[in-house]
Amino acid sequence: MNHTWKLKGTLFFFHSAMTIIISYMPVYFQALGLSGSQIGILLAVGPFAAILSQPFWGYMSDRWKTVKYILLTCLTGALIVGFIVFQMNEFVWIMFLLFIFFAFMSPAGGLGDSLAQKVSYERGVSFGSIRMWGSLGFGTSSLVSGYLLASFGIQNIYYLYAFFLIIAILFCTRAPDSTPSRKKANLKKALLLGKDPVLALFLIMIFLISLTHRMNDTFLGLYIVELGGNEAIIGTAWFIGVITEAVVFAASALWLRRFHPLTFITFAAVLYVLRWLLMGSVSGPGDILYLQILHGLTFGVFYLTAFQFVARLVPDELTSTGHLLFISVFFGVSGVIGSLIGGAVIDTFMVRTLYYMMFGFALLGLLGSLFYRAYYFRTRQGMKDKKRLAEMNG
C-alpha cells in the first residue's frame, strides 16, 4: 500500500508552518519596534544556526539509519522552543532563543526533502510529485495567513505557526521511513566531503545564486510594505510564487530527464538575473504579484535539480549528510550573509536598492554556473554523464 500521502501531509503542514516564519517574522520584529539592523541580525541568527545544525542532523540520520525519527525530533523541538521565543520582547533574549529554535526548525526542511527523495526513488515515483505538497502548503498558508494576521494582528503569529506544526508532527508519526543504506556512515568520510573539489565548487556556485534568493525571502515583505502594501498583499505574493513552484515540481517527471541538471541550473540562473532586475524596477506592490510567477521557474527548477544533483557527488551512505550540507549552504550560509547585508543596505538606502544589488550577485552566479559546467564535464563523473546523455539522445 502506498503511504506516500502521509509524507505529503507532513511536507504540506510543515511548509505551512514555515510560511509563518519566512514571510511574517520580519514584519513581526518590525512591530516589536526593532530597527532594520537589529532585524537583519535576528534574521541572520536562523541561517547561522542552520549552518551548524543541518550537517549534524543529516549525519545523525545517516548514522542512525533513520530520517523519519530525526525529523520528528526536530519538529517537536521547534514547537516547544518556538513558544518561548514568541514570549520575548528584548532583543538579546530573542537572539539567544532564536538560535536554539532554528537549530531544530531549519534542518526539518532538509530532512523532509531528503526523506521525500529517498522514498520517491524506492517507490518509483518522481521526487517532485511528493515535494510539490510542501510548496502547496507554503502557498496555501501564505494566502490564508496573510488575511488572518491582517485581521487578528501580527502579535498572534505563534498560535498560527503551532497549529500547522502540530498537524505536521501527527502526519510524520505515520509517514514511511526510508530504507537505510547497507554501508555504515563514517564520520571521517563525512568530514572529508568538505575537501572534495567537485562538491566544494558546486556549493560555491550554489551560494552565489542562493544568496539572492534568501535576500528576497527575508526582505520581500518589507519591500511590499515600503511600496504601500500590507500583510494581505504579502500573503498573496507568496501564494502566487509558491503555487507556480508547485506546478514546476508536479511537472518535473516530464522535464527533469530531458537535459542534464547543470543545464537547468544555468537556465534558472538566467531567470534569476532577469527577475531581480524587474523587481528593482516596479512602481507599486501590484507589480510584484505579476513577477511572482517567475518564482516557480527560478526556485522550482534551481532547487529541484540542484538537490538531486548533489546526491551524485556524495557516497550513497552519506546521502542525507550531502543533502543537509547543500541545504546549509542554500538556506544557511546564504541566509546569514544575505540578512546582514540586506539589513545594512535598507538602513542606509531603500529595499529597492537591495534588489539591484541582488541583480549583480545573480549575474555572478550565472557566470559561476557556466564555469562549473565546463569544469564538471572534465571530471570522471562528468564524462560518465556526458556518455549517458549521448546514449539517451542517440
From TrEMBL:
The keyword Metal-binding does not apply. Its main location: membrane. It holds the Pfam family MFS_1_like. GO terms for molecular function: lactose binding; lactose:proton symporter activity. Residues 1-180 form the Major facilitator superfamily (MFS) profile domain. The keyword Cell membrane applies. The chain crosses the membrane at residues 12-31, 37-57, 69-86, 92-111, 132-152, 158-176, 197-213, 233-255, 262-282, 288-311, 323-342, 354-376. It comes from the Bacteria. Keywords: Cell inner membrane, Cell membrane, Membrane, Transmembrane, Transmembrane helix, Transport. GO terms for cellular component: plasma membrane. It is found in: Cell inner membrane. It is a multi-pass membrane protein. This is MFS transporter. It comes from Alteribacter keqinensis.
